[in-house]
Amino acid sequence: MKNEIENKILEKLAGIETMLAGQKTVLTFDEAAKYTGLSKSYLYKLTSTGKVPCSKPHGKMIYFERLQLDEWLLKTRARAEEIENEASTYVTLNKIGGQP
Q1: For the residues of the chain, what is the DSSP string, one character each?
Q2: How far, in Å, CA of 13 to CA of 18, rounded?
Q3: What confidence tens digit (pLDDT) does each residue in 8-61 have?
Q4: pTM higher than 0.70, yes or no?
Q5: How far apart (Å, rounded) are the C-alpha atoms in residues 24 and 91?
Q6: 10 Å Cβ neighbour count for 60?
Q7: What are the residues facing 27 on neighbouring strands?
């Protein structure tokens, strides 16, 4: 019972942290991972390949502008849906898989 209550409190605190991170204009790497819901390893891969907007003012710490992250997330989602629609249309028109 005590562990259940503690877990609920921790979940609520995590939710509050996420909401507060959404109020900041500049996010740290950890905050950006929580804010976007991306794993830290995947987010790091995106930063190292330049696929997500970020800055490294002193060469070590990575920072993200929240509004740029929002734009990137929305653009990425739209492009993913567009690719899925194109693939669906291609499969339908070309009947891939040996179907007559």
Answers
A1: -HHHHHHHHHHHHHHHHHHHHTT-SEEEHHHHHHHHT--HHHHHHHHHTT-S--B-TTSS--EEEHHHHHHHHHHHHHHHHHHHHHHHHHHHHHT-SS--
A2: 9
A3: 899 888 888 777 766 789 999 999 998 898 999 999 999 999 999 999 998 889
A4: no
A5: 44
A6: 6
A7: 64
* The pLDDT value given to residue 77: 65
CATH 1.10.1660 fits 2-94, yes or no: yes
Is the CB of residue 41 less than 8 Å from the CB of residue 30?
no
Domain range annotation of the chain: 2-94
pLDDT reported for residue 62: 96
**Residues 61/45, Cβ–Cβ less than 8 Å:** no
Neighbours of 71 (CB within 10 A): 12
